Amino acid sequence: RILILDFGSQYTQLIARRVREAGVYCEIYACDVADQAIVDFAPTGLILSGGPESVTFSETPRIPAAVFELGVPLLGICYGMQAMASQLGGSVEASDEKEFGYASIRARGHSRLLRDIEDHTTPEGYGMLDVWMSHGDRVSVLPDGFKIIASSESAPIAGIGDDERGWYGVQFHPEVTHTTQGARVLSRFVHDICGCAGEWTSGNIIEDSIARVREQVGNGKVLLGLSGGVDSSVVAALLHRAIGDQLTCVFVDNGLLRQDEGDQVMATFARHMGVNVIRVDAEARFLAALEGETDPERKRKIIGNLFIDVFDEQAAKLQDVDWLAQGTIYPDVIESAGAATGKAHVIKSHHNVGGLPEHMKLKLVEPLRELFKDEVRRIGLELGLPSDMIQRHPFPGPGLGVRILGEVRKEYADLLRRADAIFIDELRRHDWYDKVSQAFAVFLPVKSVGVTGDGRRYEYVIALRAVETVDFMTARWAHLPYEFLDLVSRRIINEIHGISRVVYDISGKPPATIEWE
Ligand code: XMP
């Protein structure tokens, strides 16, 4: 297993994902972690990430001493390489020119790290690599025992290596896809140099998680808030396989779910897989609590707090529950403060699980804590969950509550569910569903005039929203074909009494958010 020390690079998570994709387990620790934690992790090799600082200043992070005493292979990337060079007796100089973007570097000599890895060869026979660079400082003097393994015009020492110890440094970023051979470089390091086998596969992750859950909870009883979203669904499937009837799930139907969603969750988990699921029909309570409320943030609060109350009431009815399961995943862990030390225990802030009664004193079990989203999806499929469920677009905790503008009413929710189902159905049918990142309908409580046949209609408006995004922080509206939008619009207006107009949202994020509220 590989330990990644984080020096603050925006790409550190990517390093971890690439290593996992190479089939090798890894974790990220903060660079100032205690020596003992590094020793306890017992890494087969270490990767030192890049970072925004400069080693030419004295207050900036340094590599912990334990790293050099373990006697295992090391790979320093950018800042990681500079820190290595400077701490091992070489030097690093600040440079006025910053290099940012694509660069072509020459792989030199026959280092074990870069041997035979190249994008093209020069007429003189040198192997060249197209890489992504992002740095100001550069190594100017090699530390003892190291050779230059790569160079570029602006960085004559763009890579250093000591084949004997298996210690390497590269100025470029192998973890980003712009570095075309990056995955091969990382794979070379973790497989050939560290000697890690590619055993981190879905099957092994499941086996390993099952063994650990069994050991952790023993004969204890576990409670899980099942939402139907990917993370809680995979936790349910995994725990069910690990501990069977010791698991009880609570599924709260708040009346703000998509069409047939509650039935699908019950069909998949309760009927099909035989998981204990308590379905709580709380639609009336949620609608009553939301009555008259038009402010989006207050609506969110009402829905979140009521969820907690309903969940807690159910939990309190259960006898002898010892554990609370949560679908926390690795990015949640990394993103929370202090998490990189591997110690943080974070309660997910959104509405999955709330403030359980003090007296219950539940311990947390979080079987996905070490997994990235794509790994969670893969093991979900392997555990037999339907791919529709696993590949589903994200759905906000407050559900249709933030897609019905202003006051939430049952009549509106019912109209919206039907319009949304038509839109999603056609997206799937025309192979658009997987090409967009999130798509849904929004209910606008304004009436507009229409005509059908001889009749005049004066009914509500539905807005359709579909976006493409990687991280949901920024998004562009999906350029769905006019013919497709035409078809969806006709179906909604013809099939749903109560809707007389359909519009398509062509706002990007920013400035518009993805949801309308
Ligand atoms: P916005 O609307 O902020 O949404 O551009 C970004 C992503 O977050 C989802 N979202 C929520 N998820 N509770 C959630 O669990 C919420 O209150 C919430 N609001 C927005 C949204 O669906 C999109 O994927």
Describe the overall structure:
By secondary structure, the chain is of the alpha/beta class. It has helices spanning about 10-20, 35-40, 65-70, 80-85, 180-195, 200-215, 230-245, 260-270, 285-290, 295-315, 330-335, 375-380, 385-390, 410-430, 480-495; strands spanning about 1-5, 25-30, 45-50, 75, 90-95, 100-105, 120, 125-135, 140, 145-150, 160, 165-170, 220-225, 245-255, 275-280, 325, 365, 440-450, 455-470, 475, 500-505. It folds into 3 domains: about 1-195, Rossmann fold, CATH 3.40.50.880; about 205-380, Rossmann fold; about 410-505, GMP Synthetase, Chain A, domain 3, CATH 3.30.300.10. It contains 15 helices and 21 strands. Strands 2-1-3-4-12-11-10-6-8-7 form a 10-stranded mixed beta sheet, sandwiched between helices. A hairpin with a 5-residue loop joins strand 7 and strand 8 (about 125-135). Helix 6 (about 200-215) packs across helix 7 (about 230-245), helix 6 packs across helix 12 (about 375-380) and helix 7 packs across helix 12 (about 375-380). The two termini are about 45 Å apart. The relative contact order is 0.08. Bound molecules: xanthosine-5'-monophosphate. The site of xanthosine-5'-monophosphate has 12 residues, from loops.
